[in-house]
Amino acid sequence: MEHQQDCIELLAPLAPDCEDLRLELLAAQGSGPVSTDPKDVQAQHRSQAPVRRAKWRPDPDTIPVTAIDEVVAGVRVLRYAPLANPSPTTTLVWLHGGGWVFGDIDTADPVARTACDLTGWGVVNVDYRLAPQHPFPAAVDDSIAVTSALLDLGQRVVVGGDSAGGNLAAVVARHFAGDPRLAGQVLVYPCIDPSLSTASAHEFIDGPFATRAGLEWCYLHYLAGASPQDPRVDLTGAVPPGLAPAIVLTVGHDPLRDEGIAYARGLAAAGVEVRHFHAPDSFHGAFGRSGLLPSAAADVVRVWASAVEIVG
Asked: Domain 16-311's class?
């Protein structure tokens, strides 16, 4: 549901398909120790990508888009175009989630293909550098460089991402504030406030989905001693003028819930055109599993339909 008013239902029981997944993930965790070494986490995430892809519906390879490997501004990307429109005039720069530490464009491939199909836009799925091998601001630099290169080629660009990618997308939108070629921003449960001081940041401390401890671990490796108050990390400061219209999706079962809602409201208060959707029965990470979860797929359709409407 779209929410412009102050009073929204923050939290509801998980949708049945989300609850089934929660129980499945809890059972799969077992009782053994879980490595917190970033390289182990990265390897584990990469190993899960084929399994998640095999369960995605519809089969990502049947989505009517083309996909090719490219290098843009020195950064590897996967570029997509609709089969029905091989030369779209609008390009979505998609920045995957994963706490700036894990995640990759192969895991994000079904998400990007779906976005391409639902919007009719081109999509550039960005393989930005990850921490701790490449700590802040490497991911920011890569995201800005790719976006800048596309703008310089005359592309009309929308920037979007989920979680850490939502943070990067918001940072890119701020960097290009006032540039009419940046037509929109799509922020899916974005990381906004590294202080993790909201009520929801203290509410979700265990379980198989995002937790406060997990976010602290991500910020630790991403920042690697850099200031968490850097305006390319902490987005709680003043909203710059000229920001592109924004679509913001927040979910109920998420430590980032309250900061995402606050950011959407802050953008609107600053005069930015905002469409904010809140799914109280969904969880952090559901957007990237929408091919497995009908409830999340409905949110994905809503987000991209609204993005096309607001961006044109």
From this structure: alpha beta
